[in-house]
Amino acid sequence: MIRTLQGVLRVSQWWASKAVPLVAIAAVAYSKFDPQPNWATLAYYIFLFVVSVVGIAGFGYLLNDAFDVEGDRVKGRENALTSLGRNKTYALFGLLAILAYTPLLGLPGKAILVWLYLTEFLLFALYSMPQVRLKEKGVFGVVADSLYGHVIPSLSAWVALVSIREITGPVYAIGGLFLLAWQLPLGMRHILGHQLGDYSKDRSAGEETFVIAHGTKTSRRLIGLVLTPIELAGLISFLIAIIKMSWIPLFALVAFAIFRCWITLPAKYPKFNLKMPTDSYSLEMFSWHVLSEFSQDVLPPILLLSVAHSTPSLWPVLILYPIFRNDACREYITKAKTLINRVS
Fold first, then answer.
1. CA 95, 17, 246: angle at the middle one, nearest 5?
2. At what angle do helices 86-101 and 110-128 cross, to 10 degrees?
3. What span, in angstroms and rounded, lies between the C-alpha atoms of 228 and 206?
4. CA–CA dist 260, 39 (Å, integer)
5. Is the pLDDT of residue 146 over 90?
6. Which one of 104, 222, 280, 342 has the minimum C-beta count within 10 Å?
7. What is the pLDDT of residues 74-126, one digit of tens each?
8. Alpha helices in 147-290 (DSSP H)
């Protein structure tokens, strides 16, 4: 039953890349802005927030699949709702809506979260429903996907664990603005990459995505020359905004970028060359193999480490990453063993 639900809600597509980073961002905001941070309180808030994230993410994917049954059939793509049945689908929609909203009652940022979630649900509907279907409205679809898939969830994580009444000074608002400046181009880049991967199937199905309307070459140049530099600037700005809490995340970004750009990427992609600022190919490779991998796999544990470093009483936060990403931890251990065997 659990595996069936995981398949229907496509948990594997959003848990590692979105849910876990959101938990790390929420922990950072709590550590930095709560006047009396406490580990037990943080654990309780994170539990509520994760339940809410599961509810709203699952609802969004389920709604998208509900409107894509016929399109997926034409593309030859599996759609889990075809075998679920109408009554079970309605019941699952109701359950996910309850999971999304009920935990908000126990979170300090509920006054803002309610409006963010309402906007999220509205975007879900406008993106998928045939009467509007922003999914096929070119740049509007790209922006909408980024908003509901990255921007609003990240801002929700930023406000969820903190009461706005306890905030003093401009740092909290500035951090939120930089978070938006980072997540918006990141989300746009990811949906364009998804459309590039589905180009042939979407074209056969008669869908009018941004990539189909403007071509793969233009889309790749947009990713490399426009979105990647903006995303990098937004990410650096956000890490600078929280630098008083810890310098570790910014240092980790610089170290990871150097490692990737000067060691692994040139070996794997001979055409990779960041010495040419107008080389869209190299910048696109940089976006996938540096920015995406850093945001998804490197930054979350680094942020949790920073929380423990800046607020020692919250050190148990370090166990969250092994709990939520045990697959990544196993992979790191395997790579470490391989490296040790090679050295010895």
1. 115
2. 150
3. 29
4. 35
5. yes
6. 342
7. 555 665 666 666 787 788 889 999 999 999 999 999 989 999 999 999 998 89
8. 152-160, 171-197, 199-205, 210-214, 216-221, 228-241, 248-259, 265-268, 280-286
